[in-house]
Amino acid sequence: MPTPRPAPPDTSVTSGAPATSSTPTWHERHGRYPRADSVADFKHNLAAVRERIAAACRRAGRDPGEVRLLPVSKTFDAAHLRLAYAAGCRQLGENKVQEAQCKWEALADLADLRGSVIGHLQTNKARRVARFASEFQALDSLRLAEALDRRLQAEGRGLDVFVQINTSGEASKYGLAPQEAAAFLRALPAFGALRVRGLMTLALFSAEAARVRACFALLRQLRDLLRQDAPAGIGLDELSMGMSGDFEIAIEEGATVVRIGQAIFGARTLPDSHYWPTNGVP
Ligand SMILES: *Cc1c(COP(=O)(O)O)cnc(C)c1O
């Protein structure tokens, strides 16, 4: 993979704050995050990420208490999740539900560990999420909403959900088109077990900071628009956006949840094409 050049200074930001305008993406570090193999490694990486979150909040004039760090443990084994727990993590995100279920079952003794499913879900796997997850961030169809609701009602549970929006326009990314979101939200109150918390997106995977920022800004603007006539009971306070390579830009654009894997757990050995249908442009 060619190493992208550092992003040029971004002159087209929507936030208009000069201090934040040149925040780069870190996708070029991809594959170079050191592996965490001890509680001390996890504590160190978590502290470094929290410091970067705090610095991004300072630049944006935000309170770091508004930004939840969701560590993403996909591809790492249960033993590493246990180390993350020992370092203080109480909620972990997984992209694939089968993998999540295996690991969470192995960690069932950690009573206060909660699981978040952040990746695309096939309707026939809704039962697993309804049973094992405390949060689902990739709701993108009414068929899935219906299947989740039915399974949750049977389990007597509720589930926090985020509606995934495709802000990059890439065919390879899951999520609703922005213009589909309003009608989608109007249909959700029918599914009483789903507690809608907000929107989620994956930005363009790019070293061009301005193009990444545009994805995050679009999600925030969409949220602000949708909030004006959201149905009763549909919460739109949360914006889940930003990962290891771009979370600082996401925070500058209003993220309330950042989903961070590699900067905490270390580089993954599997390529991202294992998780997303194709890689984005570098
Ligand atoms: C893997 C993943 C992340 C975290 O990516 P990192 O590069 O490991 O920080 C965030 N969101 C989703 C949906 C993911 O699948």
TrEMBL record:
<dbReference type="InterPro" id="IPR001608">
    <property type="entry name" value="Ala_racemase_N"/>
</dbReference>
<dbReference type="Pfam" id="PF01168">
    <property type="entry name" value="Ala_racemase_N"/>
</dbReference>
<feature type="modified residue" description="N6-(pyridoxal phosphate)lysine">
    <location>
        <position position="74"/>
    </location>
</feature>
<dbReference type="InterPro" id="IPR011078">
    <property type="entry name" value="PyrdxlP_homeostasis"/>
</dbReference>
<keyword id="KW-0663">Pyridoxal phosphate</keyword>
<feature type="compositionally biased region" description="Low complexity">
    <location>
        <begin position="11"/>
        <end position="25"/>
    </location>
</feature>
<dbReference type="GO" id="GO:0030170">
    <property type="term" value="F:pyridoxal phosphate binding"/>
</dbReference>
<feature type="domain" description="Alanine racemase N-terminal">
    <location>
        <begin position="45"/>
        <end position="268"/>
    </location>
</feature>
<comment type="similarity">
    <text>Belongs to the pyridoxal phosphate-binding protein YggS/PROSC family.</text>
</comment>
<comment type="function">
    <text>Pyridoxal 5'-phosphate (PLP)-binding protein, which is involved in PLP homeostasis.</text>
</comment>
<feature type="region of interest" description="Disordered">
    <location>
        <begin position="1"/>
        <end position="31"/>
    </location>
</feature>
<protein>
    <recommendedName>
        <fullName>Pyridoxal phosphate homeostasis protein</fullName>
    </recommendedName>
</protein>
<dbReference type="InterPro" id="IPR029066">
    <property type="entry name" value="PLP-binding_barrel"/>
</dbReference>
